[in-house]
């Protein structure tokens, strides 16, 4: 047993799945209705049970932890990892709560001006808020930028980050609730926001062959969608179908996957900076519902009872169709 201070049995309540800091040094867990919060230092082998209760209201988790595990929001209040209040956000607008940038430097408070049905997207089990504005805050909870939709009936949300540039990508759209869930956003447009100055720069849709430089927009979620921008030329590109970014190969090639639900398979795609082309690698194995991760030269496929490592041998950007695809199966 690693820790003497084990979580209590809170049944019929339940715990979150746990939040692991990006350096894998801290594990935080929280019970839903009772709000019991525990923090485990996995390196020092110490634990902390927070005195304050952080209660959640169904069906939403009310805690938004920073990726580095050192800060979190709860009910419009910002706390450090020990449960000490750092800042508060005195707002009364309709919001689903703050979320963090991937580098933990900023958090965003999206909100709607009223509870009109026009500000909600049909999300299936839970409707999804379509924000009309948001506040961008620094790590200490101090507002640094505020953005509001430019026209009546328009919505705006922060769609991703460019951490190395200290910039964010904004998505503007209108709603058509009569459309299927994945098609309700209409008249979509994108802009780059300078977090330092607040300046907005328009982006236009283009093919990757037109790009001079490629920056990947980061969303900071488990299954990162593919979204590239060329800041210099004001361009953006993303696949037409939902995609999941996997990683980067040694020579800077970007890899992602697209699931073909009708065939119960997935396809791997690679973008080569050398010739600015997207190449598809056909994989005969069924990859649907399996996690793919890139570790330098390998794409790891996790099956229920085995690990499968796929790697590309002896390929060149100009001749990916002749690449060798090899599988190493390690049975669990």
Detailed description of the structure:
There is one protein chain. The chain has 332 residues and is mainly β. The protein has no helices and 29 strands. Among the domains are: 1-80, no CATH class; 89-213, no CATH class. The strands form seven sheets. The protein has a seven-stranded mixed β-sheet, with no helix packed on it. It has a four-stranded antiparallel β-sheet with strand order 1-2-3-4, with no helix packed on it. β1 (19-20) and β2 form a beta hairpin.
Short overview:
The chain is built from no helices and 29 strands. The protein is mainly beta and 332 residues long. Among the domains are: 80 residues, no CATH class; 125 residues, no CATH class.
Question: What secondary-structure arrangement, pairings included, does this model have?
Answer:
Layout: E1 19-20, E2 26-30, E3 37-41, E4 46-49, E5 63-65, E6 71-74, E7 77-80, E8 85-88, E9 99-100, E10 106-111, E11 120-121, E12 128-129, E13 133-138, E14 143-148, E15 155-162, E16 167-175, E17 185-194, E18 200-205, E19 215-216, E20 228-230, E21 235-237, E22 244-248, E23 254-260, E24 265-272, E25 277-281, E26 291-295, E27 298-302, E28 306-313, E29 324-331
Parallel strand pairs: 18-21
Antiparallel strand pairs: 1-2, 2-3, 3-4, 5-6, 6-7, 7-8, 9-10, 10-13, 11-12, 13-14, 15-16, 16-17, 17-18, 19-20, 20-21, 22-23, 23-24, 24-25, 26-27, 27-28, 28-29
């Amino acid at each position: 047993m690693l820790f003497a201070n084990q979580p209590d049995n809170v049944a019929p309540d339940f715990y979150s799945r746990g939040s692991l800091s990006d350096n894998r040094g801290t594990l935080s867990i929280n019970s839903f209705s009772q709000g019991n919060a525990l923090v485990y230092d996995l390196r020092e082998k110490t634990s902390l049970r927070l005195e304050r209760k952080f209660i959640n209201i169904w069906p939403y988790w009310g805690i938004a932890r920073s990726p580095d595990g050192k800060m979190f929001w709860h009910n419009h209040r910002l706390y450090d990892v020990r449960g000490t209040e750092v800042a508060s956000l005195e707002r009364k607008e309709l919001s689903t709560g703050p979320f963090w940038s991937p580098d933990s430097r900023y958090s965003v408070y999206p909100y709607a001006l009223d509870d009109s049905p026009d500000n909600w997207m049909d999300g299936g089990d839970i409707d999804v808020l379509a924000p009309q504005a948001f506040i961008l805050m620094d790590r200490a909870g101090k507002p640094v930028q505020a953005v509001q939709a430019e026209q009546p009936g328009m919505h705006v949300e922060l769609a991703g980050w460019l951490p190395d540039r200290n910039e964010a990508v904004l998505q503007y759209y209108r709603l058509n609730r009569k459309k299927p869930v994945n098609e309700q956003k209409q008249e979509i447009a994108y802009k780059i926001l300078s977090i330092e100055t607040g300046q907005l720069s328009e982006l236009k849709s283009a093919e990757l062959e037109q790009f001079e430089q490629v920056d990947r927009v980061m969303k900071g979620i488990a299954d990162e969608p593919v979204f590239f921008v060329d800041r210099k030329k004001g361009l953006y590109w993303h696949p037409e179908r939902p995609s999941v970014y996997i990683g980067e190969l040694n020579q800077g090639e970007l890899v992602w996957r697209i699931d073909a639900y009708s065939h119960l398979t997935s396809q791997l795609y690679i973008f080569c900076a050398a010739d600015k082309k997207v190449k598809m690698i056909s994989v005969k194995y069924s990859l649907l519902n399996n996690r793919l991760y890139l570790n330098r030269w390998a794409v790891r496929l996790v099956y229920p009872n085995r690990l499968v490592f796929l790697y590309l041998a002896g390929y060149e950007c100009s001749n990916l169709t002749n690449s060798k695809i090899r599988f190493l199966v390690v049975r669990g």
